[in-house]
């Protein structure tokens, strides 16, 4: 039990599996749960990245850049000198394999590339993961009008591997501890590295119902705004996709919310999502102009009537002046209510969907 009394969640299958590596950050070493696995072990070796960075950039899929905002942190790369002895040995072996001399303290700038060190046969081509993600988003947007559960079951079966998890970390939110009914979960976020973190974990079995619920509770459309990804293939054939800048945009009838953060997806060799992680930093809320235009017009008219009724030349009776004063106050209150957008939760989703996540 954690200090908040929540039952710790079991380690997700993704972290129990090998080939897990974090892109950048202090935990870019292999996860401790993977150290006993030799078959699929991946090591993030910064000093060899320089020989691959160019290849990575050239091979990346060109995804349109919609969002120039993103994480405000710069994640440091781990120099080879700070690798564990085992990692350092593996590091040297790889350097020998590719005929490179070790580079000392080469600091990463941008993407980190994990060299392919296995002989696992694959028809992988760079960009396959990003392409698959686009297919998933497109299919999701083409949902039927009746939002039936079977559509979501089919979608999840097609794009998610059995036992897959979807995580949403909000540990980087300001004043996260003051968010109502949010609690800590016993996993480590692979982007902000917090453990335990504040957030949610959804298993693949729950996804169809949650997707349906999301649209049943007022969501009109959802978009993913993404920057250029870092993509690479792991030794066991998994495809790792990391977007250092990503934003999830939810459109509701009266508002639009944009959650800013990082996105990290791991695909199985057959291109099914095994893990989907979004680490959100904050969100913006936008109120549709049409939604507040009536309140603005009403407030403007009430102000003008009040002004005229209080002029010295006005022939308004005290009762009429009181009536205009009351109308002005009432209009101002309606404006406050409209801008308050009370149905959006503190983390930028509909409150009813937020309760489902909990
Ligand atoms: Zn996080």
Task: Describe the protein.
The radius of gyration is 26 Å and the shape is elongated. The chain has 2 domains: 13-287, Nuclear Transport Factor 2, Chain: A (Roll), CATH 3.10.450; 289-340. The model is unreliable at 1-121 (pLDDT under 50). Strand 7 and strand 8 (273-287) form a beta hairpin. Helix 5 (149-159) crosses helix 6 (207-216) and helix 7 packs antiparallel against helix 8 (318-340). It is an alpha+beta fold and 358 residues long. It has helices at residues 13-16, 46-59, 85-97, 128-141, 149-159, 207-216, 289-310, 318-340, 351-357; strands at 160-169, 184-185, 197-203, 219-226, 230-233, 239-252, 255-267, 273-287. The structure holds zinc ion (ZN). The site of zinc ion has 9 residues, from loops.
Q: Secondary-structure blueprint of this entry?
A:
Elements: H1 13-16, H2 46-59, H3 85-97, H4 128-141, H5 149-159, E1 160-169, E2 184-185, E3 197-203, H6 207-216, E4 219-226, E5 230-233, E6 239-252, E7 255-267, E8 273-287, H7 289-310, H8 318-340, H9 351-357
Parallel strand pairs: 1-8
Antiparallel strand pairs: 1-3, 2-3, 4-6, 5-6, 6-7, 7-8
Helix pairs in contact: 5-6, 7-8
Bound molecules: zinc ion (ZN).
Residues 169, 171-172, 189, 191-192, 194, 197, 279 line the site of zinc ion (ZN).
């Amino acid at each position: 039990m954690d200090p908040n009394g929540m039952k710790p969640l079991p380690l997700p299958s993704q972290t129990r599996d090998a080939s897990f590596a974090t892109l950048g950050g202090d935990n870019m070493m292999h996860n401790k749960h993977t150290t006993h696995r030799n078959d699929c072990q991946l090591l993030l070796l910064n000093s060899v990245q320089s020989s691959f960075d160019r290849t990575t950039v050239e091979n990346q899929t060109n995804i349109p850049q919609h969002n120039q905002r993103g994480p405000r942190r710069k994640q440091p790369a781990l120099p080879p000198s700070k690798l564990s002895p085992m990692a350092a040995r593996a590091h040297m072996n790889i350097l020998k394999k590719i005929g490179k001399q070790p580079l000392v303290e080469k600091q990463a700038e941008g993407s980190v590339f994990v060299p392919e060190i296995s002989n696992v046969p694959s028809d992988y081509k760079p960009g396959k993961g990003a392409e698959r993600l686009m297919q998933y988003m497109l299919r999701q947007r083409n949902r039927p009008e009746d939002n039936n559960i079977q559509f979501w079951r089919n979608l999840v079966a097609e794009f998610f591997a059995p036992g897959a998890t979807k995580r949403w970390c909000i540990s980087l939110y300001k004043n996260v501890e003051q968010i109502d009914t949010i609690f800590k979960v016993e996993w480590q976020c692979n982007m902000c590295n917090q453990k335990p973190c504040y957030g949610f974990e959804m298993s693949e079995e729950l996804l169809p119902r949650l997707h349906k619920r999301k649209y049943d509770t007022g969501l009109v459309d959802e978009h993913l705004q993404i920057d250029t990804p870092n993509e690479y293939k792991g030794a066991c054939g998994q495809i790792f996709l990391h977007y250092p800048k990503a934003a999830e945009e939810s459109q509701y009838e009266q508002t639009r919310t944009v959650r800013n953060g990082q996105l990290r997806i791991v695909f199985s060799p057959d291109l099914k999502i095994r893990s989907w992680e979004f680490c959100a930093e904050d969100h913006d809320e936008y109120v549709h102009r049409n939604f507040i235009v009536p309140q603005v017009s009403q407030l403007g008219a009430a102000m003008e009537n009040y002004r005229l009724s209080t002029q010295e030349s006005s022939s308004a009776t005290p009762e009429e002046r009181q009536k205009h004063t009351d109308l002005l106050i009432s209009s101002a209150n309606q404006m406050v209510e409209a801008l308050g957008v009370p149905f959006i939760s503190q983390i930028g989703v509909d409150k009813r969907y937020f309760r489902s996540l909990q």
